Amino acid sequence: MVQLPSQPVTELLVKWRGGDQEALHALLPLVYKELRDIAHRQLRRERSGHTLQSTALVHEAYLRLMDQGAPETQNRAHFVAVAARLMRQILIDYARSRGAQKRGANLRVDVELAGDPAAMSPKQGADIVALDDALKNLSERDEQQAQIVEMRYFGGLTIEETAEVLKISPATVKRDWSMAKAWLSREMRRSARGEAGAT
Questions:
Q1: What is the Rg, in whole angstroms, of the alpha carbon atoms belonging to the chain?
Q2: Which of 171, 179, 157 lies closest to 111, judged by CA?
Q3: What is the DSSP letter of 119?
Q4: What's the pLDDT tens digit per position in 90-104?
Q5: pLDDT per residue over 29-44, tens digit each?
Q6: Which of 8-22, 32-46, 168-182, 184-198 has the least mean pLDDT?
Q7: Can you name the residues that pair with 59 across neighbouring β-strands?
Q8: Are 145 and 180 contacting, i.e. CB atoms less than 8 angstroms apart?
Q9: What is the largest CA-CA distance in the chain?
Q10: pTM of the entire structure?
Q11: Number of neighbours of residue 67 by Cβ within 10 angstroms
Q12: Cβ–Cβ contacts within 10 Å for residue 147, how many?
């Protein structure tokens, strides 16, 4: 993840939380490339021929941020994590609106790999709707682990950035990231077996 100067971003976030809508307009160019990279990574996992493009996904996230108002973000990494969560939700909404519960019809993800989240393969795993359901279940079981998955997998944040946002140690992030991936992998396999049995 490209490191951007965090001081101007932090100042703009404070102004935005204070009600200054112009601060969001000034903030976007400072994080735009990073947000496009996240959007590109998320769409790269999408089925071929998807009608959404990276730019459209970023712009839709921007519009939702304007509508929702300033989230409680402390710094650049936290803001990027919030934006990544919004992009993920946009893709989930898009998949649901397209009736993408059909097997193979929507975003394919693989939560089993132990490496860099950006390297996770779109050829294996489960669809984004099923992953979203599994993440909701994980969140009920362990909110922190679910947040770590969102930040690492969907936001592309590093271990250190995730630790900074959540105000926990990098060692805790590593441990929870590993545990969350194992739990999700088991849930996704169980879900896939259920689907196979239903056909």
A1: 17
A2: 179
A3: G
A4: 888 887 777 644 544
A5: 888 888 888 888 877 7
A6: 184-198
A7: none
A8: yes
A9: 54
A10: 0.67
A11: 7
A12: 22
